[in-house]
Structure of PLP-dependent aminotransferase family protein:
Amino acid sequence: MKLYEQLAKDIDDLVQRGVFRAGDRIPSVRQTSQHRQVSITTVIRAYLLLESKGVIESRPQSGYFVRRGAADAAERGVAGLRPSKPLAVSSKVDVSRLVLSTLRSIGTDEAIPLGSPYPDPRLFPFEKINRYAYSIGRDKAIWGVTDELPPGNPNLIRQIARRYHENGIAVDPREIVVTVGATEAINLCLQAVGKPGDTVAVESPTFYAMLHAIERMGMRAIEVATHPREGIDLGSLEEILKKRTIAACMVMPNFQNPLGFQMPDEKKRALVALLSRHDVPIIENDVYNELYFGEAHPSALKSYDKKGIVLHCASFSKSLTAAYRIGWAMPGRYRDQVEKLKFLNTLTTPSIPQLAIAEYLEKDGYEHHLRRVRKLYRQQAKLTKTIVDRFFPAGTRTSEPMGGYVLWVELPNKVDSMKLYQSALERGITIGPGYMFSTSNRYSNFIRLNYSYQWSPELENALVTVGKLVAHGAR
């Protein structure tokens, strides 16, 4: 093999192993010449060979970059996660005790919050919203009207509908029911479509708040095989629908927690069509929809719904402020039932938080705030993945987040995430053990990491420490 061919092969191998990913800039001709101690001509010939094979591409005055889609490590199963293949068995749900104890430890002030389910609150414009709330609270005109009956404050509902319109999603404001966060929205929607003993189809792994809702209702969960970059497997879901009675399907099509994928539009359309044929309602948890890394806002399952079977749930807790707990549901043909259940369960949603957020949306720079947050999350996702790739042992695989602020990490088979959780906690570090994201132990060697918090030497050292603990547990 000639020298330039060997160099080209070495770079191609790095791409295949995920060291260089789609869109990454590879070292310049001069840098490679110096580091490999070869001539510039040799490097240029190697790069031309890689370019001819479609591995890299040149960009004028910018350098050479790995072509998107040319060597996707996740698709090749090298550095990325593999699709889950859970057994199609429904089971009672009992993960709440584990989650509660884990969240209590994560909430300690001293611990480094790699396991936190919450975004860094320092990124939110809390003081601005608080000033609106204070001003509203001093207005004597609203004294004695501190709560808002369903469906919620009209101005907030208008602002929510406008936001969807700005993002290219047409909604009817009359369908919106304001709730106390997305958690209440999910619980109300599940209560509207099912009853105790019913079976609900979920992704695998799935966000534990959705398992909590199923547990609270006395229902059973059936986990469906899920692709780490495209979402729930439609073939597996269809087989389940043919064999079992399913009350509802609960999914997170955009930046799913913990996998972080964005379901392709054609698959969203196909999922809605499949469940429409079987007349099975879909509860869509879209709380991360504003936190995308791409150029355009993602579509929602709601966009493809022609029969009113999609019950869309979202909130401001992950994008604007978690302190005020304002969410909403757009429940399709179940809208009246959800509004009634809202009234029966919690009666009202406090007015002042609704009014304060509505004023912020109308008068302040929500989009500017979101652009700053998205940029930061995108950068810190890459930093976190780089540290994991560098300091975690062989056999570690990571998700490829398209948005949101969590990274899903598959560890070597010998590692138990609960033991790792305890060892990390002893060192003042929290992680999210994989046990929380399933009704079984199939994710015992997985962890979830939060990358929303401000990058610091302490945070970086914590990641390195977890990597060392993983290496020790893998022996």
About this structure: Residues 366-391 form the longest helix (26 residues). The chain has a mean pLDDT of 89. The two ends are 38 Å apart (CA to CA). Residues 3-76 form a domain with the Arc Repressor Mutant, subunit A fold (CATH 1.10.10.10).
